[in-house]
Structure formats: structure tokens, C-alpha cells
Amino acid sequence: MNTSKLTLSIFENARRPNKKKLSVHKKVYVHKKKPVEQLIAIEPLVGKSNMKSENFAKLDILLQEKNRSSLLENTEISQLPLQILKGDLDSTKTEEIRKKYSSKKFSVPISKKELKSRVSQVLPIIPKLLEGKEELSYHYTHASEQRKKLPHTTMTSNERWDIPWDRYIGGYYGLRRQTFISTLIQAEYSGLLAKTKNKTLNYWTQDMFCTYVLANEVILRLIMDDMSLLKAEAEKLMKETVDYGCHVADEEEFADDLNFEEFQVL
């Protein structure tokens, strides 16, 4: 993206009009409607929900122990939640989570080749989501609400530390597979994403929007297929199994078995 154009667009609406000489006749005030943001097929949140899960209980202590500025300087932003999760996880907790789900069977791809094959069948949904032709899930709603809380057009480094990241983890698929799905989305639709004018996408940046919004839309549809669930049921399961994704799925095998040609397009 052209930096000069971005800078201009950020301040364009903030410019004050040039002063004009007073006229004898008063001009009739015309209310100008703000441009409607694209991606309007959004499913609203019902009531207020407490999305904070117990595996993030130590987050405040963790952040106090870290030097934020130095970590931010040496960490890719898309991997920041993973850094937080790694500091919050322990083997004791993982065993507790395994026992919690001992009676459940989740079909999680164990290799990149397997996951890529499955995702390729769902990827055509992305253009429809970006064009507002397909209804988005609560993931976009959360991302949009986060953007509206603050006046910045792009998320700042400090704001990234205050985001409840558990809202954006892809359920029992976990963050590792979610990040890989984001890579597949960007490899296929980076051009379309660059052309999409959307305040929430701009706020999160293309990389993070793909990881924490669009990748979750793909995972949602994979879960619907995995478990033969309706959309609302799959959304509920995603919210309830974030702890499994973080503590169990992300610790299990996820083989990097792509061949050279497949790797080249990523």
C-alpha cells in the first residue's frame, strides 16, 4: 500500500474546511451521511458475554513480568498471542484439559498437507464474505467492536496487549492451525484484501484480520463439517473449546509435510 495515500486517507476527513466570506443569504444545512462500511452482513452479538476463559487467568501477571517494549520490537505482531499463550501454559494445566475432554473426539488435521487440502474446499467463501454476500460470524463482530472502542485507524502496539485474545482463537483447532490457514488465505486473496475498503480490516491490518477473523470463518465451516453441526452450534463449540485448542491441539503433531511446489505459493 502507498504510504502517502494511507497518510492522506487517515487525515482526509479530519481537515477543516477553508474559511469562506460571510454571505447575505444563509445556506441550508445539508446532513451528509457517513459512508457505510462494507462487510455489512454481520450477525450481532446477543447480550453481553464473559468470554474470558480460565487459561488466560494468569495473563495480567505474565504481562507485568515481561518488558513489553522489547518484546514488541522483537516479535511479529501476528505471533504476539502465541507468545502470551506460551508463557501462560504449563504441563499440569494441559493434563487437566486432556482429562476434561477425555470423552470427546475432535478431528484435528495432523499435517499441513491434510489441512491445506481441506481448507482449499472452503476458501471460495472468502470473496463472498468480503463482498458482504455471505453472513459473517461473531468473530467479525468482536473485531469491529474492538476497532470502535478506540480512535485510531490502525491498532497500536499498546492496544495489542489489552485485547482479550481468547475471543479470537479458533476453538479446538488451536492457534497453530489457525495461523497456517491465515497464510493460505493471504496467498490466495492478498490482492482482493488490498482492494477491500473496510475500517475494521484496516484497523487490524491484513495479516491480523486474516488470522483472527477470516481464518476463524474457515475453521467455523470445517467444524460444521467435522461435527455435522449447524452454524450456531459450531460457533458455540468454538467458544467452549478454546482451552482445548490452546493446551492440547497446539501441543499435538502438526507435520510440515508440504512439498517444494506447495511451499512456494505460501
Detailed description of the structure:
By secondary structure, the chain is mainly α. The chain has helices spanning 3-12, 59-65, 68-73, 80-88, 91-100, 112-120, 125-130, 138-149, 157-160, 174-195, 199-227, 231-240, 242-247, 260-264. It has one domain (77-264). Helix 6 crosses helix 10 (174-195), helix 10 packs across helix 11 (199-227) and helix 11 (199-227) packs across helix 12. The protein starts with a helix and ends with a helix. The chain is built from 14 helices and no strands.
How many domains make up the 3D coordinates?
A: 1
Low-confidence stretches: 1-17, 40-78
Q: Tally the helices: what do you get?
A: 14
Oligomeric nature of the chains: single chain
Overall number of strands: 0
What is the mean pLDDT?
A: 76
Share in β-strands:
under 5%
Overall, the morphology is globular
Derived from helix and strand composition plus strand pairing, the structural class reads mainly alpha
What is the N-to-C order of secondary-structure elements (H for helix, E for strand)? HHHHHHHHHHHHHH
End-to-end gap:
20 Å
Helix % is 40-55%
Largest sheet composition: none
Roughly how many Å is the radius of gyration?
Answer: 21 Å
